[in-house]
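P.,

For your records, the input lines for the assembly:
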Amino acid sequence: MINSIKQKFAEHANQNVGLLAEFSDPGALVHAVKALRKRGYSRLDTFTPFPIHGMDRAMGLGTSLLGYLVFIGGLTGCALGFLLQWWTSAVAYPINISNKPLFAVEPSVPIIFELTILFSALTAVGGMLALNALPKPYNPLFFSDRFVRATDDGFFLHIQESDSQFDRASTAKALSEEGALAIEYVSHDGAEDVNPDA
Amino acid sequence: MATTSTYHDTSLAYPDGVPKTLADAPLVAGNLSFHDVTELVAGHTEKKTPLFWFFGFSVALFLMGIFGLSISYLVWNGTGTWGVNNPVGWGWAIVNFVWWVGIGHAGTLISAILFLFRQRWRTSINRAAEAMTLFAVACALVFPTFHTGRPWLDYWMLPVPNQMAMWPQFKSPLMWDVFAVSIYGTVSLLFWYTGLIPDLATIRDRATGLRQKIYGILSMGWTGSNRHWRHYERAYLILAGLATPLVLSVHSVVSFDFAVSIVPGWHTTIFPPYFVAGAIFSGFAMVLTLLIVARKAYNLENLITLDHLEKMNIIILVTGTIVGFAYITEFFMAWYSGVAYEQYAFRNRMFGDYAWAYWIMMSCNLIFPQLFWFKKFRRSIGVMFFISITTNIGMWFERFVIVVSSLHRDYLPSSWDYFSPTIWDAGLYIGTFGLFFTLFFLFLRFFPMVAIAEIKGVMPQANPHFYDHAHGDGAAGDASEATVEAVPAKSDEVGR
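Structure tokens returned:
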């Protein structure tokens, strides 16, 4: 049990170790992703300054699970809003005013609604961060000097070392054949340029 | 894959940026590259602080001083320093509260509702509008907080156990307001911050030293991984879907403060939609006021183009006319209801002691925006700046008319009175401008004022199919010679 958790963490820490290749534009990147998947690579990721239309499909990623999490969060907020108003006005401190009902749904709707939204929104942002494993203060990719352009105008493709097809020389060659402008090997020790023709 | 999707075709149809209609206008002018956009927006947080910024910021800080003074005097002496009397117990404080909350609606409207409607021009204005929303909500919250008279007991409004073992009265619209406005502020902050993460990472990657560390912490290690974008885009869509009913509900709840009571002039079912339209109207006007100045001062005319401003003017025209129509509907309903009190309240608005306020409201909100029927005026910076100011004056007077003219003539003629503000009413109101502009100037200095990642995403070259002529049809697995050759040809542009 503990060993399997340890392994999960180790895999997570190593998921950004591998070859990082730069491409010229979004079109070349989508093309390269499709081509490399066709060659059998699966543990790949792209790094781009903005989300690229059609990249999820090119990478074979399904729909994010986030919607289900938010649904649960919203239901929690809804139930909490209901219970809060019912418990405080009908149980904890009942006040009889003109023999009106101690609790009624109608005037409770605004706060139930607001709490539903609050919990859903918190789940959406918290869930997004959790699914992305952010905040992530250390990332070996930051060793690469080129990589700063991933948030500017650089388009990068990364293949994990843990990919079953990974072989430093042949993978670099494959990346080069698919149009990579520059290839680097990024590990916990730093980044070094790789010459695909060597 | 050879066929391009229609979604992207509008921007591809006019590669030279010669639009036939407003809908086809390019979203980014000046033929900018991705890197130009980064330079343009992130650069402003890195350059030497411009002189006008110091000038504006010191004016804002001066007003902030007035704010501090007014708040201190108020807390020391109590709300009796305001002009509120009996029957006008809700004076400027509530007018200012509703006015600021209303302004705070534009940001979320632009980020959420226009996002769901795929109005891609929103990307140039949404960041600044969201910031404006947050600061306007902060200003709004000042008024109810201090209107309680003993702000140190405000925790009684929260569902936390207190020494009286009592709980808030959840059947009161004022309690709904506490929840609606504070949750609106929280969700707006989440939305704004989520949008900021990729752009903060952009600034981080350009920075060194302490700056890099601060923006590094703020951007939480964002790398632009597509596996991250997938969850991120989903989160953004969900937030937009949540914020849309939220933004419509907030001003509805604010209007319940009035509509649920029985005061003539307040007790109407038209209030929620009419308040929401008014909120959007005033919010867009405030965004316009700020951006007309900011785009000029920061040379962002290529990102916030005249076409974007024209689109905002159309929204101002539409919402202003909805608001004007609601004013007229209220009169019709007062007459048609046959209720003497209601009819008196509305006659009194038009011809009574506060008729001057009523006619300011009518001309600013209904009449002036009609100028925007003419394209010439919609595209004139001078006219739109003037109307953005008059709109916010008009919307302030709308709340003044609703609050004061309704209250000063209630059911009991013996309690009728005239309300006049004191200098402390004015001081606090002017002071909130200090708070607003202090925060806004800090935002302009330290944060990207245009959503960098989003604006890159709507540029034509962001579409993978934009490159199809260079890459053949880009078919999967087709590692043709053409692909390999075409890529280095563009490397001089990339290798900057």
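Two observations worth noting. The CA atoms of residues 128 and 163 of chain A lie 25 Å apart. Chain A is about 45% helix and 15% strand.

Regards
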